[in-house]
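Standup notes
- DV: blocked on the single-chain target, sequence here:
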Amino acid sequence: MALQKFYQKEVLEAGCDEAGRGCLAGPVFAAAVVLDAKKNIKGLDDSKKLNEKQRQNLRFEIEEKALCFAVASYDNKQIDEVNILKASFLSMHLAIDGLRIRPKLLLIDGNRFIPYFNVKHLCIVKGDSKMQSIAAASILAKTYRDDFMMKLHESYPEYGWDRNKAYPTQEHRDAIAKHGITPYHRLSFTLQKKQLALF
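- DV (later): unblocked, structure below
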């Protein structure tokens, strides 16, 4: 089923989404995207339904054709300070801050959000598989975060972040048990059942 391009056409709207909320290490990334009514981007979909090559190709097309976009992040230490849910919302706020055009309506993936100043927002459950702008934001957040974790992998290859991107796979958990934690792990997350023994 094709995704809807705009929720409404009276005011400028931006789609917002995040990536990396369930990870054990690294930042959470968020993106905000304002699509151009005159330019179409074929194949936009929830980033989780696309393979790596499709996401990368769409990323370049989104960056080229969107009216404006911005990407931002909250690192693991900030996540530990405020909790991951709030960090996800605040990283979206930072992304919205980065837009060169201020939207009048924010389309948020999910069922909750911290209001952004006086800008109206609408939470859409599974919005990344319903609205093109949210799907575009999900693709940018995911690809920027993946690039970041690939870079970190060069310094910490034993955790397999080039493959698991710091999600709680068995490989990642086994590496934590064997090698301990890095400065990029989120201490507020359950890294291991015997987590206290690691510190």
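- Follow-up: Residues 132-155 form the longest helix (24 residues).
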